[in-house]
Amino acid sequence: MERKNKIALVTGGSRGLGKNMALSIAKKGIDVILTYHSKKEEALAVVAEIENSGQKAFALQLNAGDIKSFAKFFVEVKQTLQNKFQAERFDFLINNAGTALYAPFAETTEQQFDDAMNIHYKGVFFITQKALPLINDGGRIINISSGLARFSFAGSSAYGSMKGAIEVLTRYLAKELGSRGIAVNVVAPGAIETDFGGGRVRDNKEINAHVASATALGRVGLPDDIGGIVAFLCTEEARWINAQRIEASGGMNI
Q1: pLDDT tens track of the chain, all 254 residues?
Q2: Residue 121 appears among annotated catalytic residues
Q3: Which is catalytic among the residues 14, 146, 156, 249?
Q4: Which of 19, 156, 159, 249 is catalytic?
Q5: Is 145 an active-site residue?
Q6: Which one of 18, 102, 206, 232 is most buried, counting C-beta atoms within 10 A?
Q7: Is 146 annotated in the active site?
Q8: Which domains does the chain carry?
């Protein structure tokens, strides 16, 4: 069956940047499957907002750090595509799900490291691998990194270095998936006012002021500064952008 609407899968789409990405993508006329870890009600509210705007949407539970659960998850994705969207495949994978880890290098535990690695690198690697049979040729993959892969703040050694790995992985994916016409890019937000990391940037006035003073445009980022960039990368206009790191930080630490 020929489908008019394209479909995006956004991990971690129930709140924060992922929610903004999902809503921004829907505004481009793209249907959305979004995942949530535990905030089912918040996810369903995002689905309702998207459907009220005229696009189709559906929410699925996913623990992005539980690699063994991915096979079952993609069975659910396949069923959702058929039942909700009358489709066999989707077009855009946005690897957004993530958690914060703030710990000095000398005090980072192996458990903290492993948990972060599973979510931020190993999980992204294998979610993408398992998604490949369901992504249409000519689709897009958008990974989410961080400004912390370029500049360094004490306490983010594990998180920042894992995001650096994601940026290298993005280039390899672009190389290996180019034969299928799939473009792969990475978006690196700077410090954003969300509930990420317990709302640290949003709620701590000292951190907020420090970030603003280090940013050329003179303020901290907002979710609305990011979602539209991810949505743009899903459009036909962005078709020739490939293997690129796009930092959206307002010019932080330049």
Answers
A1: 445 799 999 999 999 999 999 999 999 999 999 999 999 999 999 999 999 999 999 999 999 999 999 999 999 999 999 999 999 999 999 999 999 999 999 999 999 999 999 999 999 999 999 999 999 999 999 999 999 999 999 999 999 999 999 999 999 999 999 999 999 999 999 999 877 777 788 888 888 999 999 999 999 999 999 999 999 999 999 999 999 999 999 999 99
A2: no
A3: 146
A4: 159
A5: yes
A6: 18
A7: yes
A8: 7-248 (3.40.50.720)
